[in-house]
Design a protein that fits this description.
The chain is built from eight helices and 18 strands. With about 400 residues, it is of the alpha+beta class. It folds into two domains: about 280 residues, Lipoprotein localisation LolA/LolB/LppX (outer membrane lipoprotein receptor (LolB), chain A), CATH 2.50.20.10; about 100 residues, no CATH class. The strands form two sheets. It has a twelve-stranded mixed sheet with strand order 7-8-9-10-11-1-2-3-4-5-6-12. It has a six-stranded antiparallel sheet with strand order 13-14-18-17-16-15.
């Protein structure tokens, strides 16, 4: 077994570390929350037959091994379990899928992976060919990327969604929705690319995952106040591919996200794996037609006055409207200001009728501070404070951290 490499972390590497590449330090909780809320976690159903005895390796060397991995062909089965402490989103996603995009729309169907346990079948042959299938009882939902085309098919409803590859030369309106991370490597990349000085990364033993020898990379926040206890990534000892991803909350209990292969094969999948022809009689929705209908839809009553600056530019603060990031690393908090700035006349939580206010209070905990009063809404990973004056503070942090941020911003 490889020794516990707690004495050497990526922070101490002489060359700046692969971990920091393309990383904004405040993005760590955003990446983790995005992965957990919008995607997956794999059940710990990966039977171990004893930890393998592997050559010693440092954390920096293991991260470099992940970054240098050139494996582009694989197929296998992934089991996914996500527990944010929320009710199942299956019905909600299904309802959303019944809209203009049909039940095959990836935007809605992939959201089902945000809760519960799922079995996926995955295949990849380079950057231009991938297939992901969610297996159900007597039905299957598949997303197939083959060259410039992205197809999604729901066998239960016999509906098809067709779009263009987001990397192809098509106009944005004709592109298919960006797919969510669905493998341990996707999840590992989200965390490692956002790690920085606020993060400790060490090697913590070995494991046997899906019949493969693997090193265990342990990622832990150095800061207090985060809802994340640790992230454990099992890395294939031979080719550097992440095989399992587990995110544990600081509150204890089962994993929030636990993602891993139960079967994996690194040979090239058959070319026919990525072929798709719409079945006879299937209802087909084209992404460009759907976007054209959405562009022609009427605007909400009252127009969009006051929303200027609330888009991506608002994510860095800017003119005080939109989203401002407070702090960095695992305890970064997004401060969301009501569109329109301080002079906005948008409804505030305190303006709600007593019955509605009572309902909201039942969903969260009332808190008070120098900022005034508000309600904290909790999951096992992401918490949000909605103040009575219309501001929202959200992050993968504790309730106390949210209240402290709101007090400091007052």
């Amino acid at each position: 077994m490889a020794p516990n490499d707690t004495a050497r972390t990526t922070d101490e590497a002489g060359e700046g570390g692969v971990v920091r590449r393309k990383a904004a330090r405040y993005a760590v909780p955003v990446a983790v929350a995005g992965v957990a809320a919008a995607t997956i976690g794999l059940v710990p159903a990966l039977a171990a037959s004893g930890d393998p005895d592997l050559p010693d390796i440092t954390a920096q060397e293991l991260i470099a091994k992940i970054a240098a991995s050139d494996t582009e062909q694989l197929s296998g089965t992934v089991k996914i379990s996500t527990d944010l402490g929320l009710p199942s989103l299956g019905g909600l996603a299904g309802g959303a899928a019944g809209g203009d995009g049909g039940s095959a729309s990836p935007d809605a169907r992939l959201m089902e992976l945000a809760s519960g346990t799922h079995t996926l079948r995955v295949a990849a042959d380079g950057p231009d060919r991938q297939r992901l299938s969610i297996l159900g009882d007597g039905a299957e939902y598949s997303v197939i990327h083959n060259g410039d085309d992205v197809w999604a098919y729901d066998s239960e409803s016999n509906e098809v969604f067709h779009g263009r590859d987001a990397g192809a030369g098509a106009d944005r309106e004709q592109r298919a929705p960006k797919e969510l991370p669905t493998t341990p490597k996707d999840l590992a990349d989200e965390v490692l690319e956002a790690a920085g000085d606020t993060t400790s990364v060490t090697v913590d033993g070995t494991a046997r995952i899906a019949g493969r020898d693997a090193y265990q990379l342990l990622v832990k926040p150095r800061q207090s106040g985060s809802t994340v206890d640790s992230v454990r990534i099992a890395v294939d000892a031979e080719n550097g591919v992440p095989l399992k991803f587990t995110l544990l909350p600081s509150s204890g209990g089962k994993a929030v996200v636990d993602a891993g292969f139960t079967k994996v094969d690194f040979s090239r999948p058959a070319a026919s794996t990525f072929d798709f022809t719409p079945p006879k009689g299937a209802k087909i929705t084209e992404a460009d037609e759907l976007n054209s209908r959405e562009k022609g839809a009427p605007k909400p009553a009252g127009g969009l006055e006051g929303l200027e600056g609330f888009g991506p530019a608002g994510l860095v603060g800017g003119d005080g409207r939109g989203v401002n990031v407070i702090g960095e690393g695992w305890t970064a908090i997004a401060e969301i200001t009501t569109p329109g700035g301080k002079g906005s006349t948008a409804p505030k939580p305190g303006d709600a009728p007593p019955e509605a206010r009572q309902f909201l209070d039942a969903l969260g905990d009332r808190v008070k501070g120098d900022f005034g009063a508000g309600t904290v809404f909790k999951t096992r990973l992401v918490n949000a404070l909605m103040t009575d004056d219309g501001k929202v503070y959200v992050g993968a942090v504790t309730q106390d951290a949210l209240v402290e941020a709101a007090n400091a911003a007052k």
